[in-house]
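Lecture notes, part 5. Sequence design as translation. It can be helpful to think of inverse folding as translation between two languages: the language of shapes and the language of residues. The source text, in C-alpha cells, appears below.
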C-alpha cells in the first residue's frame, strides 16, 4: 500500500538577514517582560548547527538545542500560515549553558497563556539538571544527581516527564533511571532504579537488566516506560516507570550488519502502545518491535540515511514514521505496525542542504518543523562525553544551520 504524498511549502525560517522584531505573544499578559537572553551577544545566527527541535505541547513554541550549548525558544507568530511570504524566525529568548547539553524535555502542561506552566528541563554536562522557562533568564530550579562513589555530578543523557504525574520526571544515566519530584528544588532523586539487577535478584529468579548509559526514554499510552541504552539494549518497566521490570531485549545484528547501529538514541511508541520504534546512531534505518503482541521484531524501515554519531530524530505520526537524513531529505514510511519485513520510504522531500537532525509535527497536524546542521571535517574539534561528535559526516553541498517551518497539505 502506497502512503500519502504530501505538498510541503516553506512558511518560516531562521535563514535571512532581515529579522522581524520580537513581539509579545498573544495570550500572554502585556506586563510580562521579554526576558534577556543568556546567550553571548557575539553569537551570530546560523553559526552553530541545530542538534534538535521540539514542539511545546500547545504548539506555540519550538525549543531548539544548538552545538554551541544554547537552548533557544521560538514563539511562533499568529500569521504563520497566512503570511504572503516566508516569515523570518527570531528567537524569543535563549539560555546558554557553560557545558554541552545532553538532553531536554518540555513539561506536558506547557501552555503559553499560563506563563507559570511554560517550563522545560535541560541536562548540562557535570552540572545539576536545570528547570528553565522562556520567560525567565535565570534558572528556576535545579536537581542534582550525584554519584554515590565519586560524589561528582552525573549528567543524564535522557530526560522524560511522566505522563501520569506532572510533578514527576525521569533521568537516564549509566545503569540507572532516577525519578525526581519537580517541586523539590535543590534535592536529588526520590527514587533510584538500577537497570542492572543485583546478584541476589538474579539468583532468586529476577529478570536480567540492561547495562550501559540510558540514552533514550519513552512512555507508552498504557504506562510502560521504555529505556534504550548506548550499549544497544532496551528495557521495559511497568506502572508508568515506577513499577518493576517487564523484561529487556538486545537489538539484533552485529556491527557489520546493515541493520545494526552503535547505540539507541530514541524510543517511540505507537499511539495504541503496541509497537515500539527504536532509532540508533550510525544506522540506516529504524527497527519496529511488536512489544504487546509477539514480543519480537516486526519490521525494519531502511533508507533513513542517518549513518552518523549525531543524534538524528524520528517521529511517529499515526501509522507513519518521519525521519531526516544526513543528505538533507525528510523521509516517510507508511504502514507502521501493518506489515512485516524490510521496507523503503514511501515518500520524501528535500528540506535542507545539510543533515536534518529533527523533523517534528505540530500536535494539530499540517505544520512540520525541521532543523539542520552537522559538524564537518574542517570544523574545529569539539568533544563531548556522549560520543556524538567523534565522527564527522561527509560534507554535503553547503553548510546549512537553520530551523524551518513547513505548511504541509
Amino acid at each position: 500500500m502506497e502512503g500519502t504524498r504530501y505538498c510541503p511549502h516553506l512558511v518560516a525560517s531562521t535563514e535571512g538577514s532581515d529579522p522581524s522584531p520580537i513581539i509579545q505573544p498573544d495570550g500572554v499578559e502585556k506586563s510580562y517582560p521579554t526576558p534577556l537572553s543568556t546567550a553571548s551577544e557575539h553569537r551570530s545566527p546560523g553559526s552553530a548547527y541545530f542538534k534538535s527541535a521540539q514542539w511545546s505541547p500547545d504548539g506555540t513554541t519550538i525549543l531548539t538545542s544548538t552545538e554551541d550549548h544554547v537552548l533557544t525558544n521560538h514563539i511562533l507568530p499568529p500569521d504563520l500560515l497566512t503570511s504572503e511570504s516566508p516569515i523570518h524566525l527570531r528567537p524569543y529568548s535563549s539560555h546558554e549553558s557553560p557545558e554541552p547539553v545532553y538532553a531536554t524535555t518540555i513539561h506536558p502542561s506547557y501552555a503559553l497563556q499560563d506563563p507559570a506552566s511554560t517550563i522545560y528541563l535541560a541536562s548540562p554536562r557535570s552540572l545539576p539538571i536545570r528547570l528553565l522557562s522562556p520567560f525567565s533568564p535565570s534558572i528556576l530550579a535545579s536537581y542534582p544527581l550525584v554519584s554515590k562513589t565519586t560524589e561528582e555530578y552525573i549528567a543524564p543523557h535522557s530526560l522524560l516527564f511522566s505522563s501520569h504525574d506532572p510533578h514527576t520526571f525521569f533521568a537516564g544515566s549509566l545503569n540507572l533511571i532516577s525519578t525526581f519530584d519537580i517541586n523539590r528544588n535543590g534535592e536529588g532523586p526520590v527514587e533510584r532504579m538500577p537497570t542492572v539487577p543485583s546478584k541476589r535478584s538474579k539468583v532468586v529468579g529476577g529478570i536480567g537488566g540492561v547495562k550501559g548509559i540510558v540514552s533514550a526514554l519513552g512512555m507508552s499510552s498504557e504506562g510502560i516506560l521504555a529505556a534504550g541504552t548506548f550499549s544497544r539494549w532496551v528495557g521495559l518497566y511497568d506502572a508508568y516507570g515506577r513499577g518493576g521490570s517487564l523484561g529487556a531485549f538486545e537489538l539484533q545484528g552485529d556491527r557489520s550488519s546493515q541493520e545494526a547501529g552503535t547505540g539507541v538514541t530514541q524510543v517511540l511508541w505507537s499511539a495504541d502502545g503496541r509497537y515500539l520504534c527504536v532509532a540508533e546512531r550510525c544506522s540506516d534505518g529504524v527497527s519496529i518491535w511488536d512489544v504487546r503482541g509477539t514480543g519480537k521484531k516486526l519490521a525494519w524501515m531502511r533508507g533513513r540515511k542517518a549513518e552518523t554519531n549525531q543524534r538524528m530524530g524520528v517521529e511517529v505520526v499515526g501509522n507513519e514514521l518521519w525521519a531526516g537524513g544526513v543528505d538533507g531529505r525528510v523521509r516517510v514510511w507508511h504502514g507502521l505496525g501493518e506489515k512485516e519485513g524490510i521496507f523503503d520510504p514511501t515518500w520524501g522531500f528535500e528540506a535542507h542542504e545539510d543533515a536534518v537532525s529533527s523533523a517534528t509535527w505540530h500536535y494539530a497536524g499540517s505544520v512540520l518543523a525541521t532543523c539542520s546542521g552537522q559538524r564537518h571535517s574542517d570544523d574545529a574539534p569539539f568533544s563531548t562525553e556522549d560520543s556524538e561528535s567523534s565522527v564527522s559526516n561527509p560534507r554535503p553541498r553547503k553548510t546549512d544551520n537553520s530551523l524551518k517551518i513547513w505548511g504541509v497539505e
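The translated text above is only one of many valid answers, since several sequences can fold into similar shapes. Confidence is low (pLDDT under 50) at residues 17-22, 29-33, 200-207, 380-385.
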